[in-house]
Amino acid sequence: MDPNRKDLLGIQDLSKDEIEEILKTAESMEEILKRPIKIAPTLRGITVANLFLEPSTRTLNSFVLAEKRLSADTINISASSSSVLKGETLLDTAKNIEAMEVDMIVVRHSAPGTPHFLADRLKASIINAGDGCHEHPTQALLDLMTIKKKFSTFKNLQVAVIGDIKHSRVSRSLFSGLNKMGAKVTVCAPPTLLPLWLEPFEVDFQYSLEKTLPGKNILYILRIQKERQEESFFPSLREYVKNYALTYEKLEKFASPDVVIMHPGPINRGIEIESRIADSKYSLILDQVTSGVAVRMSILYLLSKRKLDGLKN
C-alpha cells in the first residue's frame, strides 16, 4: 500500500497493486486465525475507535475481532451512547475521540461522504465502514478475497450483480474492485433500481434474471434496502420476488452447475434469495464473513505501518 496513505475511504482511491497487497497481507492474517491461540502482538500500542452511528452486526463485530486478534486497544461508540444525541456535532465527537490519542477511527454513518469529511479534518487514520448509499470498501475487499480463494484469478470471471443496486453502498465499491481486477460484470435489476452513477463503470445491463444466469461464475445477490427507499421503485414486493428472486428452480434450470452465490448480508430469505440456496453447496456467504476478519486485519496493519515503524525506532 502507498506508504503515504493515511485513510481507506473507497475502492476507487486504491490502485490494483494496493488491492493485491491488501489481499496478500490478508492471506498471512488468515494464518493467525487458524492458530490454536488466535492472537498476535502486531498492533500493540495502537488504539482504534469504532464510531458506528448506523446499525451493524457483521462489519462492527468483524472490525472488533480483527482489532483484538492483532492486540490493538479498542473503544466502541454507537449512536445511542454518543454525545451526538445531546446535540454535539459529528466533528466535535470525532475530535474528542482523537484527543484521547486514538490512532485510527473506523466510521459508519448514514450520510454519504462522512468518512471523507473526517479524513480531511483529523490526523487519525479514517476507515470507511459504510457511508450511506455511497461506498463500503472493506466489504468489497473481503468479497474480492473470497473470489480469489475460490477461483485464484479474476481474469475473465463472469459476475452478475442482481438486486437493489441503486441503494447499495456495497455495489459501487464492488464494481470498482471487479473492474480493476479484470472481472466481467453484468447487472440485473428493474430499470428503476439502476442508478446514474453506473455510467463510468464497465458493466453490461440485463433486466431478465433468466437471461442473466447462463454462463456466470458468480451470482452476487443484493437485498431490497427498504430503509433507504423514500418511494416505491416497483409495483409490489410480490412482483419483485416473482421476477428477480433467485430460486432453486431458476438456478438449476438456467445457471451453470458450478456457479457460486455471494451476498453481503443481511439476507432477506424468501425475497431476494431462497433459503435452500443460501444454505446450499453453491453458497459462499459464510466464507465472505470469514474473509472479512482477515481483510480488516490486513487494512488495520497496513494503515498503521508508519506508526508501528516509528514506535520501533
Topology summary:
Blueprint: H1 16-33, E1 47-52, H2 58-69, E2 73-78, H3 90-98, E3 104-109, H4 114-119, E4 125-131, H5 137-151, E5 158-162, H6 169-181, E6 184-188, E7 203-206, H7 209-212, E8 218-221, H8 237-244, H9 248-254, E9 260-262, H10 275-278, H11 285-303, H12 305-312
Parallel strand pairs: 1-2, 1-3, 3-4, 5-6, 5-8, 6-7, 8-9
Helix pairs in contact: 1-5, 1-11, 2-11, 5-6, 5-11
Enter the CATH topology name of the largest domain. Answer: Rossmann fold
Question: From the helix content, strand content and strand pairing, which structural class follows?
Answer: alpha/beta
Radius of gyration: 20 Å
What is the string of SSEs from the N terminus onward? HEHEHEHEHEHEEHEHHEHHH
> How many strands, which pairing sense, and closed or not: the largest β-sheet?
5 strands, parallel
CATH homologous superfamily name of the largest domain?
A: Aspartate/ornithine carbamoyltransferase
Mean pLDDT across residues: 93
Number of helices: 12
End-to-end separation in angstroms reads 21 Å
In the CATH scheme, the class of the largest domain would be Alpha Beta
Helix content: 25-40%
The fraction of residues assigned to DSSP E strands is 5-15%
Provide the domain count: 2
- Spans of at least 5 consecutive residues with low confidence: none
Gross CATH architecture of the largest domain: 3-Layer(aba) Sandwich
Cross-sheet strand order for the largest sheet = 7-6-5-8-9
Shape: globular
Count of individual beta strands: 9
